[in-house]
């Protein structure tokens, strides 16, 4: 991390951290010189958030806070958003891109936590621990082996062979399971895992099916009445990915019929916004079903890792202009240049902008010591290192270039 002072004084940077983000985030920010940090344990509704965000330069959220287009338009000073979680679907990325706001997340920091819960639920459901636990609490002694099975030798089907899916794969194989997987993108297997040609083929072979896919139009209700019938009788289903992936009424019917022997569900189509709101699901009070409140990644270790990763990205962006991991601004990993001034320029991705910038600076006699450019389908991101005595002149020229979204001197 760089130690120089940015052009915008650090003591004027206002940062808002919501939803109980791990306190390590505030510690890291303080160590980097940012002390105007407000932390809140809950999410804010849209009106409250709109009021708080108008003077905010950075905001950190988890999965509940919705950063809509209206919220973004009400935040003229906002430079970056840190999603302290895996996804970014709670942020209007198109509007963030249009306004030149960098959006970061931490997609890999809770991988181990989710994978461990998957393995734990496999064992609990195979051994029917839920029913025996409840019976014991009620004074019943259900000591028998009927319908209880070992994990070893069972076939695990993994839908989505990404960072979590591959971690589950390695752990499951270490426990003696046979691992099969399907991903829409061809992936090389880890260990002895076997790739399947289709989701249908995977469903036909798996004793336990675990889902690790994003929320997209293609994955919405991918587990439904039709797909459930393709699974082997007695299959166990786990969903620790996204609530939109499983059609809950169809799963309930399959559980009641006995075709599906058990389920572990951590995510739901509709989840309470806070602890004060009641959780209601058709899956409640069904035998051999584990319901957890979206806690797949909720371990102390994961939250600390996420805080460290997401906060580092925000600080690195503030102090060097680096956008590695951004979902809204093209990714640039930038070296720190000494004895120069750095200017950041975000613009519409149309032909001729870079040429116009260079032409404007050339006419002003500004010497460019370093230039970096990256574009995506929507915006372009140019970073220029110029001589110190020319930075204000350069910023003025770059700000007047057509299709400019945002331009500022970083240091």
Topology:
Layout: E1 15-17, H1 24-31, E2 37-39, H2 46-53, E3 58-61, H3 69-73, E4 80-83, H4 93-98, E5 102-105, H5 111-126, H6 129-137, E6 155-159, H7 163-174, E7 178-182, E8 194-195, H8 199-205, E9 208-211, H9 225-230, E10 235-239, H10 248-257, E11 260-265, E12 289-291, H11 300-320, E13 341-348, H12 353-364, E14 368-375, E15 379-386, H13 391-399, E16 404-409
Parallel strand pairs: 1-2, 1-3, 3-4, 4-5, 6-7, 6-9, 7-8, 9-10, 10-11, 11-12
Antiparallel strand pairs: 13-15, 13-16, 14-15
Helix pairs in contact: 1-11, 5-7, 12-13
Structural summary, described in words:
It contains 13 helices and 16 strands. The protein has 411 residues and is α/β, with parallel strands linked by helices. It is elongated and about 85 Å long. Helix 5 crosses helix 7 and helix 12 packs across helix 13. The two termini are 14 Å apart. Helix content is 31%, strand content 19%. The strands form 3 sheets. A 7-stranded parallel beta sheet has the order 8-7-6-9-10-11-12, with helices on both faces. It has a 5-stranded parallel beta sheet with strand order 2-1-3-4-5. Strands 14-15-13-16 form a 4-stranded antiparallel beta sheet, covered by helices on one side. It has 3 domains: 1-110 and 300-329, Rossmann fold (3-Layer(aba) Sandwich), CATH 3.40.50.720; 111-291, Rossmann fold (3-Layer(aba) Sandwich), CATH 3.40.50.720; 340-411, ACT domain (Alpha-Beta Plaits, 2-Layer Sandwich). Strand 3 (58-61), helix 3 and strand 4 (80-83) form a beta-alpha-beta unit. The longest helix is centred in the last third of the chain and has 21 residues, at 300-320.
